[in-house]
Amino acid sequence: MRFVNAGPVTDALTSGGPFQANTPPAVNLDDVLAGLAEDNVYAPEGEVDIFRDIVAEAAEQGIDLKIVAFPYNPWYGGGPRDLANDIGAADGGTILVLGQNVIASYSDSISRFTLEGAQMEIARREHPDAAAMFLDGITASSFPWTGLTVAVLFLVVAVVVATRWWSRRGYDYADYTEDAASPGAIS
């Protein structure tokens, strides 16, 4: 096979230059679980202490938070969300997986809606800042939908009961309109 040198693009393709993609290192679930066993943190050495503080703060608020951080985008089966799901299935709790530009989470106690909302806030942040903001996002009080639902249901039931009571007393709108429409009615 003969290559025709067509300039810098051909040189880059044949030399393994910028167009050659490197596969990120694969993640071994057993290694990650072993790393999480001691302090719920699996991260590069420089970030471990900061993550431990965040995990401790989460524990004070009743959340079993596990943080997994990589200085690259991890390669694991179907991706970081699969890794978070597998860690959650094996160990339970709330899991946050951070890659170079990838975020994933899982929780057995927090709704997916809340997790996704917290993830949206931390995109493109440094890992320690992202983890702290994630914790704030999952612990922030949200709109009290349950209270609103109960109040609306109570209001609907009250209106139905009042309407039924009104109709049982014998008041009929038709009686009032017929009296007003009769020719001998006094105005």
What is the typical, i.e. mean, pLDDT?
A: 80
The appropriate CATH architecture of the domain at 29-139 is Roll
Shape: elongated
What oligomerization state is this entry in?
A: single chain
Mind telling me the C-alpha Rg?
31 Å
The succession of helices and strands, N to C, reads HHEHEHEEHHHH
Give the strand tally: 4
CATH class of the domain at 29-139: Alpha Beta
> Structural class, please?
alpha/beta
Give the strand content: 5-15%
First and last CA, distance? 108 Å
Question: Secondary-structure blueprint of this entry?
Answer:
Blueprint: H1 8-15, H2 29-39, E1 41-42, H3 45-60, E2 65-69, H4 80-91, E3 94-98, E4 103-107, H5 112-122, H6 127-139, H7 145-168, H8 173-181
Parallel strand pairs: 1-2, 2-3
Antiparallel strand pairs: 3-4
Helix pairs in contact: 3-6, 5-6
Question: Brief overview, please?
Answer:
With 187 residues, the chain is α/β, with parallel strands linked by helices.
Could you characterize the architecture of this molecule?
This protein has eight helices and four strands, in the order ααβαβαββαααα. The protein has 187 residues and is of the alpha/beta class. It has a domain at 29-139: Roll (Diaminopimelate Epimerase, Chain A, domain 1). It has a four-stranded mixed β-sheet with strand order 1-2-3-4, sandwiched between helices. Strand 2, helix 4 (80-91) and strand 3 form a beta-alpha-beta unit. The longest helix has 24 residues, at 145-168. The protein is elongated. It starts with 7 loop residues before the first helix and ends in a 6-residue tail after the last helix. Mean pLDDT is 80; it is low at 1-10.
